[in-house]
Amino acid sequence: ASDQGIPAILSGYPSTPKISITNQSSKTKNLPSVSRDFKSLGYETGFIFGGQLNYGNIKSYLYNTQFDVVVERDDFPESVPDGHLGIHDGDMAPLVINELSKARQPFLYSWFTISTHSPYDIPVPIKKITGGRENDYMNTIIYSDGAIREFFSGAKKEPWYSNTLFVIISDHSHFCQR
């Protein structure tokens, strides 16, 4: 689950079944934090999400680990279309570029994408790729891949691009049968 994947990635805290550290705010304050580490080196830190960060108590985790900038669905214009979980990745790509362009350099920012998470709703037609329940998920992977490609096409035009290291990490996987 994403509420476990985020602290696993940003704090090195292992995911555990049935128990999420993000639901234990008193403990997340004491977790190691890539945000704190980079802040100590003079970086601005931020976390961008097109959904609601109250899910899984992620917002509390982000504040407890001292992210400088936390941006979620309510911070973007209402005119940006929503899916079931929030703003689709394709619509988020230019918004993320805009947020990064406002960031004080050097910066460490995380963009938590949304489209590959259940219920797998995307603003393009679902195609038949594979049989069974994996088909919707596979379609969202293709959609998100295109959104990330759009992000990089736009980011290449920004002055901060040439001095930025991009790291892409999955916070979950999915079982697929062949």
Number of helices: 6
Shape: globular
SSE pattern, N- to C-terminal: HHHEHEHEH
Major sheet: arrangement of strands:
2-1-3
For the biggest sheet, the summary is:
3 strands, parallel
Q: Please tell me the overall pLDDT.
A: 91
Q: What is shown here, in short?
A:
The chain is mostly helical and 178 residues long. Helix content is 35%, strand content 8%.
Write up what this structure looks like.
It is a single chain. The chain is mainly α. It has six helices and three strands, in the order αααβαβαβα. About 35% of the residues lie in helices and about 10% in strands. A three-stranded parallel β-sheet has the order 2-1-3, with helices on both faces. Helix 5 packs parallel to helix 6. It is globular and about 50 Å long. The protein starts with a helix and ends in a 23-residue tail after the last helix.
Q: Mind sketching the topology for me?
A:
Blueprint: H1 2-11, H2 25-28, H3 34-39, E1 44-49, H4 58-64, E2 69-71, H5 89-102, E3 107-112, H6 134-155
Parallel strand pairs: 1-2, 1-3
Helix pairs in contact: 5-6
